[in-house]
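This follows on from our talk about sequence and fold. Go ahead and set the record down below:
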Amino acid sequence: MPAKLEKRKRREPATGSVDPRARPVPESDDEDEDSPSKRPLLSDDRPLTAREIRELLGHVTDMRTAWDSFRGRLDSVEKEQSKTGFEVANLQSRTRVLEKDQGQQKQTVLNQAKALEDLTSEVNNMKVKIDDLSSRSASSGGHGHPGPGAAPFVPSGGDPWGEYLRQRQAVQPTVAPKDTTRPPGGGLPDDKGDFLSEEDKKTLVWGGWLQDTKRSVIEEESGVILQMPEIQALVDTDKLQIFGPRRSVGLLRFKVREGESFQDTKGRMWEVIRALARIKHTLPSTSATGEDKTLWASFVKTKNARVRSAHVSMIRRVAISLAKDNQPANQGVNTLIGSYDCDWNLGTVWCGSEKLGSSTHRQPKDQDECVLLTGGWVNVSAVARIAGCSTDDSKSAFERKWGDFVQSVCNTQMGQNVFLEVGWNTHDSDEFHWALFIATPVSRRRFIKRLPKNLRDFAHDDTGISLPFVAPMLMKFLFGMFVRTACFGSALAVTILSPSFMACYNKEYSQSRLVLVIATSLHVCPTVIEPDRRHIIGSDHAIVIGDVLVAGGPVKSVWGNDSRARWVCRDLPDVEIVDEDDLIDLAKKCSKPRGSQQYRDSDEVKNAILAARVSGTPRDWKAVHKLRRSHQRSWMQSRLTKILNGDWDQYRQLQNERKRRRGWWGNMLAENSSVDLAESITEHLKSKMTSNTRTADEWEHELANIIHDAAEDDTFVPFTLLEVREELNGMKCRSAVGPDGIGVHLLRECADHENIGPRLLSLINHIVATREMPASWERSFLALLAKCRLPSQPGDLRPICVSSAFHKLVNRLVCARALPLMRRGSKISCCGKGRQAADLIGSLSRLRDVTKEWCHPLILCKLDVAGAFDRVDRASVAELLRKRLRCKGVSFELRYLLAQLGVHEIVGNAPGGKQVLLRPDNGIKQGAPESAELFGLVVDTLLSDLVHCKQWGDLGSPIAELDIDLLFYQDDVFLVETQFGRLCKRIGVVDRCLRQAGLTLAKDKTKIVANEHYTGPRRAVVGADIYELAARGDSLKVLGVAFSLSRDASEQAKEIIGRTRDAAAAHKDILCAPGAWTHKVSIMRTLVESQFSWTAGALHWSKDDLHALNVLQQHTCRSAFGLKRVASENWVQWNQRTMRFVRVWLLNNHVPRWSERILTLQHTLHGHWARRTEVVRGVPRACAPMRALLWRNTHWWRAQQDLSPSVSMRHPCQFYASYPECQLSQSCGNLWYVAAQDRANWSHARRKYLEEWDVRWASGRQLTIRC
């Protein structure tokens, strides 16, 4: 609010007395009498003396001593607490192991009890049959010979089991042949699944609870019903029997009461069922699902009846799920349970007139497609009709629901005998080539019994297994139990079941073997089985020896091209360099990738291994492992020491090991095959890198005309060998190589060679002058990098082109001549030559600080250009090159750069190993040396023309005194506004402007934030686009740094401090390795200080932030120096001693503190901004960060203070200005930016700036460093 312009005269009230609470107006006319400095002189309050202050603060020393004692005791408590936490975690882990073992033991006991019950039943049956045989032989023993059909005489002490088998063979011709048809329910002919035990016949199943309901909940809710008088009189127990901690049903056991028959007991059970149906008790535990369920009861069903009921339930559940997914097609009529008629006893389900499936009825003979499951058949065509989906979707739904889904494509009779001839039997399925070798006949009964349920139902007791029908499921069973196969390529799995697994009752089959060879994409030659080899290898498995032939030679999945960097490994021969083929041959002969520097066993370890193999004792092998661990620790320490001494190759290898992420492609291959994934990635890249308006041939023809029109009557100036060496020094030797295999190190050696150097230079000049590009340059490697941690779709991959190093060298030489002629001054660009990321961060930081000081509204919007390099129109790039380089004497360089926009080929491998091949005709090749600056020039040309046009100016300026409304850095565009409606218009204008070059905005990445002083609409709908302000306090990323306009000015500094702390922790192993302290401090500048050196000068740093950064530096040095506590000191004493030692060491070794580094960067960067000018359309202008610094700076504020309050501006509220511009003004004067024009004087003034604003070494006094 504006200040008062004049004093108001005091008026006497017309009536009444004066209010005693009113303060009298002073008689003096001095308006400053009420100031804090003059108030003590006009009142009775006297200022405190130093002695009085010391007396008032005398208790501080006692508080400090008490706090030190308390902190020491607190450390002891924390230490004991950590020990207790470790013990608790240890006990928890041991308890979990014990609980797991107990559960396994319970399961074993249950299995043994069940087996014992079965054995008892079988023994009882054998006794009955033996008694029958004895009675028969006794009745015919006196007649000399047995009658027809009678069993032979069994002498005492004979083999009852053998006589039983002979009796069975004797009576077999007289009995009717056994029915080999499959019984309903899928069981074997002698399956006991249709019978219930006596206990199960007197049991009711109570259900209605949710799946995995706790036992206590079931007992509590069922107890309410069991306590009812009408139920108590009918039941024999007051509690349900529940197996396990979590179930969805409970069992209610009944007993035959005294004087009661079984029919009477069953009547009581019926009364309980009717009572529950009448009560309709709602279970409270099911209310959480939104659908209350009632308690029900039913009799225990037989095993086969449960299979039929499960079959009906599964069909209905899948049909309802499909109907819900396709409600628009079926109007939701079949999504209710009542729409389905279920016959639970026969296992049949209908929906209207459609029969969906059955366990007992015959399959329909019409054109409907049916599939066979464990419980029966399913008419997938009928399910598709009632659900409104396709038959394939219906079949897929059942396949996902059941792992044992079987396609009904097999016409083989189920009764086919598995007793094949000795040898191989083959079968081809959709995915595998099956080969079954039968060495001897197999006991089918025993084999079927050991199969899982889903396989057992397809096997017959007397007729065996149909191989083509069961093979896909048998593969899953065997792979899950015995073998593991590779995910890619060809795999061979051999499984031999041991005699213990295949043991049978009959001695005839006691030595049975079953050999399975499962192969994919293989041809297996005749195989030899050597069972005696099992004694050599110490196993009960025989060995199978044979040849496996693979079409195309050995299969090896290659997921990427070999683009490893190459170094010269021998002296270069004196050869002629005529074309690129000579360089390629030279690279193959004289360069190779460096070998891995991973740990390798020494001779001592290898000898220990050989000795352990000879002896074979566990003691020797333990000694080997101990020796190897010792050598590995020594090797790791030596590697860290090498890094401290400046071996950056070792550091890069260590970082690669840490950052390497294996298996990140797993999510992409979870639902897709490698072929489908490669196709989807190819289509995705084509949509980004190819034009939709023209073909590749049309662009080649158009580009040829553009190159022809760019010809001029000038001469080509050849490059010199000095220029080649300068560009090679700017290239990294460890960079990846392209398809030609030429590395940077080879080019450096060639340039320095006495004879090869001039020949290489001649080839370079010939290529640029004639544009005869090497054929190898037309092909580049494609590298797919993951944008996120776990990519799941092709859009999560970033394509990178890896081209020839020789190609990059020539491009750098041409760009060194052409790009300086293309550069223009810009008032909106923060990228390019002479600019840096700190320009954008500093500009926005200054806007944030000033708007907060003056309570000015501010809206900041971040726009992201979709695709960026890949989608920019090549015609726009060609037009920019022609416009900037015509008539500049570089026509040869211009035509060479235009030729780089031609169609090229990129090839790579998708996750899974399949090839990705495409020919981009749009965008700028990523990885090329000219790509980044060319893209920045294109965007700068478009947006500069936009901000200078009349229509943009008609929108109005957001801040009248500040000429900043748009800034950009490569593909990040930032808009500065104060009105939300006008901001939405600007976004639409920028989008239409970028479309001229084929670029669009990624609307989903647009983010808008506002400060607390903005009041207005926060959401707008423009056509199909919705723009909305982020929540208060939310931040957006500015080149990786978070900016929230509602938080304090130290937000970015705190984030940088956090990154620095993380970097120090990440490299702690390197910093703490044995080595010189000076080397540790030196490498700390690279590994740790790099976190803030790139942008620290553009941020606001308070004294607290600088102090925190210095403390972090001292802690890092203390940890790196290994300053440990001694036995006689506590933590407080150790901290005081070590921190003082580190400060003295840093001072004596002239190591600058990090606060000094920050202030030096601030002073240097602001001087650079003050000296830098941008010539925009012929008019010199200050750069963007300098324009932001000049807005309401200190010089302007002092001028406002000198003016009368009636015509000047005043702060609307109290505000303490503390930011870099204010600090510079206080140290170097209000016109500091004028003083910065002189570099020498500005550098000389830096010492004064540091002395005034740098923080103290310590909060207390340390005489050794004069503080």
